[in-house]
Write a structure and sequence with these properties.
This protein is mostly helical and 249 residues long. The protein is built from 9 helices and no strands.
């Protein structure tokens, strides 16, 4: 219990420090753009592959499961709703979080064990401003964009399989998806992705900056980061889902 309270306190303090640094003084947007590239642009391929095959698998399973009830024509409705509300933001966050979170932790951890972070402090600079804040801002901005890409590609994959297995026309599938997905469904997934982006960055930075020891400690912390990020995403997904359902229905 004590360790849990320490964890919450340290994450809260680091989050407050990053937020404060974002609103104080002039920002070095070059650092933020660099992290946007590392966290987002370099992650588009894994997002695309994950989303399209997830949509295709969902469509294949739903078309078979609904066939005994004569409801296979509604496959594209279920796939699009599942992708936009849940699987798009969650799977994107899990995969991008594992990739980017491990990279952030390893990078900051290497700087910590070689005393580069202490050197930044000695030079009068704030390591939170230079190292943490750009990563938190970049991931919070880029995750909704990656989620939109995952939604589009996942719905395309699901619609393609629906046309092939259920013998539906492209116009019918597109109309079903557009009628099913409303603004509240898009907001449902996008607001989750904003929190997921923040969670990925803050956990990775927290673990990286608090590493002590040598190279072995960096490896252990990197593994723990992926676990913390994954568990945090899944737990918060349930909490946020209940919250948004109570608001939007």
């Amino acid at each position: 219990m004590l360790r849990a309270f320490e964890f919450v306190g340290e994450i809260t303090l680091l989050s407050w420090s990053a937020l404060k640094e974002f609103f104080i003084g002039r920002q070095d947007w070059g650092l933020i753009v660099e992290q946007l590239s590392k966290g987002g642009v370099d992650s588009w391929s894994i997002t695309l592959l994950t989303a399209i095959f997830t949509g295709m698998v969902m469509a294949a399973q739903f078309s078979i499961g609904l066939e005994p009830f004569g409801a296979s024509i509604y496959t594209s409705k279920l796939v699009s709703l599942g992708i936009v509300r849940e699987l798009g933001p969650v799977l994107t966050a899990l995969l991008v979080g594992g990739r980017v979170g491990a990279g952030f932790t390893a990078e900051l951890g290497s700087m910590a064990v070689t005393e580069q972070i202490d050197a930044i402090r000695c030079l009068g600079a704030n390591p939170v401003r230079k190292l943490v804040m750009p990563r938190v801002v970049a991931m919070t901005l880029i995750m909704p964009l990656l989620t939109v890409l995952a939604d589009l590609v996942g719905c395309f994959g699901g619609g393609l399989v629906s046309m092939l297995q259920v013998d539906l026309t492209a116009q019918y599938v597109a109309r079903q998806m557009l009628e099913t997905i409303g603004p509240e469904d898009l907001l449902h997934g996008l607001m989750k992705s904003v929190f997921f982006g923040y969670w990925i960055a803050i956990i990775a930075c927290w673990k990286g900056m608090n590493i002590r020891g040598g190279a072995e400690s960096v490896g252990i912390a990197t593994t723990e980061t992926v676990v913390y990020i994954s568990v945090g995403i899944l737990v918060s997904d349930f909490v946020l889902t209940q919250l948004f359902l109570s608001i939007y229905g």
